[in-house]
Amino acid sequence: MMQLGQLAAAQTALAQEDLSMFGRDPWWLVVIKAVFCFAFLMLTVLFSIVWERKVVAWMQLRIGPNRHGPWGMLQSLADGIKLMLKEDLVVRRADKLVYVLAPIVAAIPAFMAIAVVPFGPADNEISIFGHRTPMQLTDLPIGILYILATASVGIYGIVLAGWSSGSTYPLLGGLRSCAQMISYEIAMGAAFASVFLYSGSMSTSTIVESQQNRWYILLLPVSFLIYIATMVGETNRAPFDMPESEGDLVGGFNTEYSSIKFAMFMLAEYVNMVTVSAVATTLFLGGWRAPYPISTFWEGANHGWWPMLWFTIKVQLLLFFFIWLRGTLPRVRYDQLMKLGWKVLIPVSLVWLMLVASVRALKNEGYNFSQIVLYVAGGAVALLLISLLVDFFRRGENEEEPDGEGAFDPMAGGFPVPPLPGQSLPPVPRRRPRHQRELIVSGRVDTVSDGNETDGKGGDGA
């Protein structure tokens, strides 16, 4: 009976989400707010491109862009104008309709997700031309699911671009992006579910309001780390930029694109970076709330236009994290990418979700904090012991295998291939002594032995 009562109370609280302040704006104010969201994304993208080039140049002891505008700040604008003025090519074997629509399908969903991200508190309405309105375009009871849906639709643009180009490398890049999205969306959804359990809502404004006392990065650190890894994989950024790795796919899904269509793919990538950073700020970093030291001694830090400043600073710090990864880590192999997604992130996210659900259930049952910590620690120790036993027996089975079994020949298929997990390359033979080497010179085999030279035709070289 107690559980049924608590479940009914939770459902009642969820049903009483106050979203009445949204949907009351006149049409012209909705247009202004939509244009502001678009301008915020575009200006952040223009700044992020220049900032990335400058930061990476600083990391690599280079100068970076310094010609266009003061301190080179107009470099990304100059690049955009250059791309729009370049010749627009369409390859002969392309499916022209899908080939043209693919960049649009990739770019539009990237802009749509920002509609439900709060830039400020919903109850602290600002005045625009005499009308009071919240600092958010709109909100939904399932706002986070809306963000997941738009992020999932954007991947179709990359897949369609790879397929419609009529070329091998773009097709491989599109398939890689599809597999990468499937691998990382599951872990991202599990990280979101932990936030839903603590906030009791999927509304973005309600989630930020529930972080009034403590940000979720402190309560749910594992969920934050999982989301950070998945958002890098979701945006196809280094070190997870496998869909466009120039080392083995020339340029990946956008190899056959040029001019404005190539610029739209680049725009979609950076807009996605801003969007996932804004979502991370909303879910784990308190959203528009001021940091802890500021909010304690300044009562007006979370009122007026100040929340937008705190929100922008947090987003820029996460964008710097993207840039830092690109300038630090090399690109991973594709099998390492899949292994991280399926064997590490998904199991860890599911176990962590079960742990968070158990803690919430124990709290609802009335257990105190020390009892909850005891139960959770006992479960963690039990899982650790089970994993150690499994690893011990698996190691024993591997040691019982004879040495001759499972020999690996890298040239068995006619071309060199890397070893699979559990296999090892044969030892590299030592370099032969000089008198045993054979030199191929002009189609003849010359041998050098003890200072005596022969030209391969016989005789003593006299």
TrEMBL record:
Residue ranges, annotated region (Disordered): 400-462
Catalyses which reaction(s): a quinone + NADH + 5 H(+)(in) = a quinol + NAD(+) + 4 H(+)(out)
What membrane topology does the UniProt entry give? Multi-pass membrane protein
Answer whether the UniProt record assigns the keyword Oxidoreductase to this protein: yes
> Which molecular function terms from Gene Ontology are attached?
NADH dehydrogenase (quinone) (non-electrogenic) activity
Q: Does the keyword Transmembrane apply?
A: yes
Q: Which residues cross the membrane?
A: 31-51, 97-120, 140-163, 184-203, 215-233, 270-288, 308-328, 340-360, 372-393
Q: Where is the composition biased (Pro residues)?
A: 416-428
Assembly and binders: NDH-1 is composed of 14 different subunits. Subunits NuoA, H, J, K, L, M, N constitute the membrane sector of the complex.
Function as written in the Swiss-Prot or TrEMBL entry:
NDH-1 shuttles electrons from NADH, via FMN and iron-sulfur (Fe-S) centers, to quinones in the respiratory chain. The immediate electron acceptor for the enzyme in this species is believed to be ubiquinone. Couples the redox reaction to proton translocation (for every two electrons transferred, four hydrogen ions are translocated across the cytoplasmic membrane), and thus conserves the redox energy in a proton gradient. This subunit may bind ubiquinone.
> What protein does this entry describe?
NADH-quinone oxidoreductase subunit H
Native source species: Streptomyces bugieae
